[in-house]
Amino acid sequence: MDSSQNSGGIINPQQNSEASTTETTSDDPKQNLNQVINSIQKTLGLIHQLYLTVSSFNVASQLPLLQRLNSLVLELDTMTKMVDKCNIQIPMEVLNLIDEGKNPDEFTRDVLNGCIAKNQITKGKTDAFKSLRKHHLEELEQAFPDEVESYREIRATSAAGFEVRSCCLWGPIFMNHPNDELF
Fold first, then answer.
1. How far apart are CA 3 and CA 47, in angstroms?
2. Residues 6+ positions from 163 with CB-CB distance below 8 Å
3. Which of 78, 127, 149, 158 could be joined to 20 by an S-S link, Cβ 3.0–4.6 Å?
C-alpha cells in the first residue's frame, strides 16, 4: 500500500496537498499544463470514488465520505492555483461549438478548409500573373524583338549574377549582385 493512502484506498489530503505544491513551482508552460491535466484526472477519480461512496451510503461510510469530500475540495483548490500559471487561449468559436453540442474538431477542419481555399485563390492569382507576363512578353517580342532579347539577356545575367559568398572572418552568408561591392 502506498504511503499516501489510508485504509480503503483513500488519499491522504495532507500528503496530496504537499505533493501538489512542490509540483507547481515550475514555470515551464508544458509542465504546468501537464500538471493541470493530471489534477483534472485526479479530480475525476475522486468524483468517481464519491459516487461509489454515495451510491452505497450507510452510517459506517460517513467518515470515508467526508475524507473523500475533503480530498476533492483540496484537489479543486490545487487545480485552481495551477490554472493561474497556465495561459491557454481558446478561440470563442470553439467554445460556441462545444456549447452547441458539436465537436470542436469541426472548427479545426473549417479553419484548414478555409486556408486551403485561400491558398488555391492565391495560387490562381499567381498563375494568372505568370500567364499575363508570358502573354505580354510574347506580344512585346512580336513588336520589339531586339528589346525583348536584350531584356531576357539582362534577366539571365542578373539571375546568374547573384552568388553566395561566405566571409571567413564573420561566417555569415551574403547574397550580392555583381554590381554591388562587398567591401
1. 21
2. 175, 176, 178
3. 78
